């Protein structure tokens, strides 16, 4: 039995993986066997995940990179009042990589690494049936977090990536995902490069009281 609190605190987004250090399939399968215990609306178990590795992963990366060099990803913008979170995390991550905000070319190159799954040898795509709704996406999120924690407890690193969902047609075509499925995000899995400064970034959190309130009287 692993320590839950230790896994919660150790999990973080990794943005450079060791491409040649393979991910043991057994560890991923163990994490998945735990993740399916996540709760879901009416026990629908709405998560669908397609993993690619080896040549299939490389083909997906090649197609995504080609598209990312040609067109912008279809990612809805954040509402204005939340935009600062993206800026702040960008500053931390790209700052750790030594990239100044004004250095558009370097930043663009770094952003492109998203569509290489940051070099992770195991690339997952998380989907949900198109006719399911908000309550069901909560179930997908619960599955995903449980999966990430179980991976962390097994010494594996990860990064959830909405950027992968920015090119749904490419993902669909490469992985044979039907139109019934909404592509929600990617998940990169592997062993992080420990001395890559951006991998040591820990994104700050709001104090609990900013996001949670108790009403008693
Ligand atoms: C739904 C979702 C989508 C995300 N998409 C991306 C992404 O496209 N690229 C990226 O570098 N990080 C992505 N992240 C990682 C977040 O930036 C990260 O979780 C957040 O800054 C908190 O940092 P931590 O994961 O290290 O605790 C995503 C995370 C989630 C949950």
Summarize the structure.
With 217 residues, the protein is an alpha+beta fold. The protein has helices spanning 4-10, 25-35, 54-70, 83-96, 104-112, 134-153, 168-175, 208-211, and strands at residues 48-52, 122-129, 157-161, 181-190. It has a single domain (4-73, 80-201), classed as NADH Oxidase (3-Layer(aba) Sandwich), CATH 3.40.109.
Strand order in the largest sheet: 1-2-4-3
Poorly predicted residue ranges: none
Q: What is the element string, with H for helices and E for strands?
A: HHEHHHEHEHEH
CA gyration radius, whole angstroms = 18 Å
Average residue pLDDT: 97
* Oligomerization status of the protein chains: single chain
At the fold tier of CATH, the topology name is NADH Oxidase
Bound heterogens, unique: flavin mononucleotide
Question: Can you say what the CATH homologous superfamily is?
Answer: NADH Oxidase
Biggest beta sheet summary: 4 strands, antiparallel
- Secondary-structure class: alpha+beta
Beta-strand portion reads 5-15%
Mass-distribution shape = globular
Per CATH, which architecture? 3-Layer(aba) Sandwich
Helical stretch count? 8
Question: How many angstroms does the end-to-end distance come to?
Answer: 41 Å
CATH classification, class level: Alpha Beta
